[in-house]
Automatic annotation (TrEMBL):
Forms a complex with PECAM1 and GNAQ. Interacts with PECAM1. PROSITE patterns: G_PROTEIN_RECEP_F1_1, G_PROTEIN_RECEP_F1_2. One of its GO terms (biological process) is vasoconstriction. This is B2 bradykinin receptor.
Length: 347
C-alpha cells in the first residue's frame, strides 16, 4: 500500500514551481487521508458480516459440501481474513501513517493482506475451472470433480498465496522518518531491481495469469452453450444460470482489479525509467490509493455474487433456519414438559 509520506518528497521536488498544481495534489491527499479510514472500516464490517454468514451456513448445514461449495467456503475464509486485517490500516492512516502496532504486527498484517488477496483471486480461478469442467467436459467431470481433489487444490492455493507474500514478510519494516516525525510501516527493498521484480511478479501472478484462466473458462462455457441441443432444455437452463454467475463474477473481478493493476504496471514502468514525468508519478500515487481500495471491495462482492445470489445457497439458508426452528421448538417443548412434571410432583 502506498503512503502519503512516500510521495511527499516527489511533491516537494516537482511542485515548488507550480503552486496551483501543488495545492491540487495536497487537497487530493488531504481528502484521501480523511475518507480512507471510514471507507476501510465500512468494507471491513460488511466483509466480515457477509463472509461469516456464508461460512456459518456451510458449517451448520447437515449435508457435506460439494466441490463448488468447498471452493466457495475457502473463498469466504480468505476474504474474511483479508477484511479482518484492514482495520489496522484504517488506524494507520488515521494516525497520519504513524504505525502504532510494532514491527511484528507490521509484518503479519501485511502478510495477511497480501496472502489472502492472492488466495481470494485463485479461489475464483478454481471456481471458474470447476464450472468449465462441469459444463464443457461433462463426460469426465465425475472423475475430475471430487471433494478430495478440491481440498488438495485449496491446500495448494493457501500455500501458493503464502509463498507470494514472502516479500512482505522479509522487506516490511517499521522505519523512523525524521522529516515527518513518524514511525512508518514501510516496504523497504534491498535494491531497485528487487523492487521491480516483486512488482512484476504481482502483475503476472495476481492478475495476468488468473484473468487469462477465468477468461478462457468463460469463453469455453459460452461456446458450449451455443451448441446445446433444443431437447436439453433443463440442462441448458442450468448451464445458462451457471454461466451468468461466472460472467457476473468475472465482470466484478475486472472492474475491481483492472484499474489497480494498470496503475501498478504504469508505476513499475516509471520506476524502471521506461516512462518519465514527475506529474505522472504524483497522479499514479494518488490513483494507486484509490484503486487499491476499489480492489479490496471485491472481497465484499464475492459472497454476494458467488454465494448469496445462488439458488442452492438460498436453499441451504432456508434449511439451516428450519433446523434452528425445529431445535428451538423441541427445546421449548422439552422445557415445558420438565416444568409440568416438576409441578405434578410438588405437594
Amino acid at each position: 500500500m502506498a503512503t502519503v509520506f512516500a510521495v511527499a518528497i516527489i511533491l516537494q521536488e516537482m511542485l515548488t514551481e507550480n503552486n496551483s498544481l501543488k495545492k491540487i495534489y495536497l487537497e487530493a491527499w488531504e481528502w484521501l487521508n480523511a475518507s480512507q479510514p471510514v471507507y476501510i472500516l465500512i468494507i471491513s464490517v460488511l466483509g466480515i458480516v457477509f463472509n461469516v454468514f456464508v461460512l456459518t451456513i456451510f458449517c451448520l448445514h447437515k449435508k457435506a459440501c460439494t466441490v463448488a461449495e468447498i471452493y466457495l467456503s475457502n473463498l469466504a475464509a480468505a476474504d474474511l481474513l483479508l477484511v479482518s486485517c484492514l482495520p489496522f490500516w484504517a488506524v494507520n492512516i488515521a494516525y497520519d501513517f504513524n504505525w502504532p502496532f510494532g514491527r511484528f504486527m507490521c509484518k503479519i498484517i501485511n502478510v495477511g493482506i497480501k496472502m489472502n488477496v492472492n488466495c481470494s483471486i485463485y479461489f475464483l480461478v478454481l471456481v471458474g475451472i470447476d464450472r468449465y469442467v462441469a459444463l464443457v467436459h461433462t463426460m469426465s467431470h465425475g472423475r475430475m470433480r471430487r471433494p478430495k481433489y478440491a481440498k488438495l487444490g485449496c491446500l495448494l492455493t493457501w500455500g501458493f498465496g503464502l509463498l507470494l507474500s514472502v516479500p512482505m514478510l522479509i522487506f516490511r519494516e517499521v522505519k523512523y522518518f525524521p522529516e515527518y516525525g513518524i514511525d512508518a510501516c514501510f516496504l523497504e527493498y534491498p535494491s531497485h531491481t528487487v523492487e521491480l521484480l516483486c512488482d512484476g511478479m504481482l502483475i503476472v501472478f495476481s492478475f495476468i495469469i488468473p484473468v487469462s484462466i477465468i477468461s478462457f473458462c468463460t469463453f469455453k462455457i459460452i461456446l458450449a452453450l451455443k451448441v446445446q441441443t433444443i431437447g436439453r432444455v433443463n440442462a441448458e437452463k442450468t448451464e445458462q444460470k451457471a454461466t451468468t454467475l461466472v460472467l457476473a463474477v468475472l465482470l466484478a473481478f475486472l472492474i475491481c482489479w483492472v484499474p489497480f493493476h494498470i496503475v501498478t504496471a504504469v508505476d513499475v514502468l516509471l520506476r524502471a525509467d521506461v516512462l518519465g514525468g514527475c506529474h505522472l508519478t504524483a497522479v499514479i500515487d494518488i490513483c494507486n490509493q484509490i484503486f487499491n481500495y476499489l480492489a479490496l471491495f471485491n472481497s465484499v462482492l464475492n459472497p454476494i455474487l458467488y454465494v448469496i445470489v445462488g439458488k442452492n445457497f438460498r436453499k441451504k439458508v432456508r434449511e439451516v433456519f428450519q433446523q434452528w426452528s425445529v431445535k428451538k421448538t423441541v427445546s421449548s417443548e422439552s422445557t415445558r414438559s420438565n416444568l409440568t412434571s416438576t409441578l405434578k410432583t410438588m405437594p
